[in-house]
Design goal:
Elements lengths: L1 E6 L2 H20 L6 H16 L2 H19 L5 H19 L12 H10 L11 H9 L2 H12 L3 H16 L2 E7 L3 E5 L8 E6 L5 E7 L3 E8 L9 E8 L2
Antiparallel strand pairs: 1-4, 2-7, 3-6, 4-7, 5-6
């Protein structure tokens, strides 16, 4: 099955973007190809630009406390207690975390120069930066992994907070099986709820992919084709709406 996720507000869109950037960074750290370090530096600079914002930290702490308050109203099962305890630990880590807003590398000229080159038209090119060539030649795969993991340490509380919150949101999903013969439909929302996320699930053999637009009252789903195939058969899929 293929799951397509669509945020319904800017807050969830931001959470999804940050989650994806961290996942991309982790994949690139463990990638075994000649240019993975180039990608790691570029993605690391993306993480700094987003995750070092002071307002993000405050927003995450507020959302965690909101979820903890909700957990206290539920039955005290082992699972719910474990989730509440994890949220508490996550909040403490966030409060103790220290990330300097902006690209302040603490006098690290190597990173400062890489950042300057990363935003240039040609990006990071080793032939233009001998110190980078030296770094690539003198470090092995294990050293480079350790280097990037160390650089990410300050941002791990952000990553953990986003991961835990999105896990809670996705568990709140309520799926409905549905079909359309025309390639589009309108799915009504409960306007009394603060709807956060739409997840549309299609079979892996499907030749269509969904696009959505939304307002407070409905989600409009339109399926586009990856081939010239016409809508001769019903498109079956699942649609789920999740809210914090």
């Amino acid at each position: 099955m293929i799951h397509y996720e669509f945020p319904l507000n800017e807050r969830i869109r931001k959470f999804l973007r940050i989650e994806e950037i961290f996942e991309k960074m982790e994949a690139q750290i463990y990638a075994k190809n000649e240019f993975s370090s180039y990608n790691c530096f570029n993605t690391f600079f993306e993480i700094i630009a987003i995750a070092s914002r002071a307002d993000l930290k405050v927003e995450l702490i507020q959302e965690i406390e909101k979820q903890r308050s909700k957990m206290k109203t539920k039955m005290k099962t082992k699972k719910n207690v474990a989730i509440n305890n994890e949220l508490y630990r996550t909040r403490i880590k966030l409060e103790k975390s220290k990330t300097t807003p902006g690209f302040n590398f603490g006098g690290d000229k190597f990173l400062t120069e890489l950042k300057t080159r990363a935003i240039s038209p040609f990006g990071i090119v080793a032939s233009d930066f001998p110190e980078f060539q030296y770094w690539l030649k003198r470090t092995n795969e294990i050293d480079r992994k350790a280097y990037f993991q160390n650089k990410l340490n300050d941002f791990l509380p952000i990553k953990i907070a986003i991961t835990n919150l999105m896990k809670i949101l996705r568990k709140n999903i309520k799926n409905n099986s549905i079909h359309t013969n025309s390639g589009s439909l309108q799915y009504k929302l409960n306007p009394l709820l603060k709807n956060d996320l739409v997840i549309i699930t299609l079979g892996e053999s499907s030749k269509f992919y969904p696009n959505i637009s939304s307002n407070k009252y409905a989600v409009n789903v339109h399926f586009s084709k990856i081939t010239n195939e016409t809508y001769t058969k019903s498109i079956k899929f699942k649609i789920g709406i999740a809210s914090f």
